[in-house]
Amino acid sequence: EAGHFLLAYLHGSPIADYSLELKGARVQLGQAVLQRKLYQGPLDDAELDSLAVIAMGGVAGEAIKYEEVIGQTEDLFDLQSLMNKSKKKLNDSEQQNLTRWAVLRAVSLLNEYQGAYERLMEKMSEGASVYECICAIESAAPNQEK
């Protein structure tokens, strides 16, 4: 879940909460953002790209940290839901390309912000608050525009 959390932060999506429960591990984005992006109409290309990268954060994080990725089903389901809300209907090839690009971009960002990612994983495993997690990201992130 740290991958989703960090990528949401880097994409400017407010994080409301997170859970590491085995049967409900989730990062909850701020309700206002989700309501606008998911319920008030189709997603434009920029919104879809940003949310696709966030959705693939779990897959990317597992791929970096472990040899085997096991939690991809829910992330791919979330991504499919996002693609279904796109203004432009994506054909199969475009969906595959978006999925590949989103995973590649997520891996790239997690590698670029590796120190922040590792610190965030520590904080989340300690049960830190969202505020404490964000402070950990900001104290460990490279001095770059986010």
Structure write-up:
A hairpin with a 6-residue loop joins strand 1 (15-19) and strand 2 (26-29). The protein has helices spanning 2-10, 31-39, 45-55, 57-65, 72-84, 92-112, 114-125, 130-140; strands at residues 15-19, 26-29. The two termini are 19 Å apart. It contains 8 helices and 2 strands. The protein has one domain (2-140): Up-down Bundle (Methane Monooxygenase Hydroxylase, Chain G, domain 1), CATH 1.20.58.760. Strands 1-2 form a two-stranded antiparallel ribbon. InterPro entries: Peptidase_M41-like. One of its GO terms (biological process) is proteolysis. One of its GO terms (molecular function) is ATP binding. This is Peptidase M41 domain-containing protein.
Keywords:
about 150 residues, mainly alpha, Methane Monooxygenase Hydroxylase, Chain G, domain 1, 8 helices
User: How many distinct helices?
Assistant: 8
The CATH topology is given as Methane Monooxygenase Hydroxylase, Chain G, domain 1
Q: What is the helix content?
A: 55-70%
The largest sheet has its strands arranged as: 1-2
The CA-CA distance between the termini, in Å, is: 19 Å
Strand content bin: 5-15%
Q: Report on the biggest sheet.
A: 2 strands, antiparallel
* Mean of pLDDT: 84
GO molecular function: ATP binding; ATP-dependent peptidase activity; metalloendopeptidase activity
Protein name: Peptidase M41 domain-containing protein
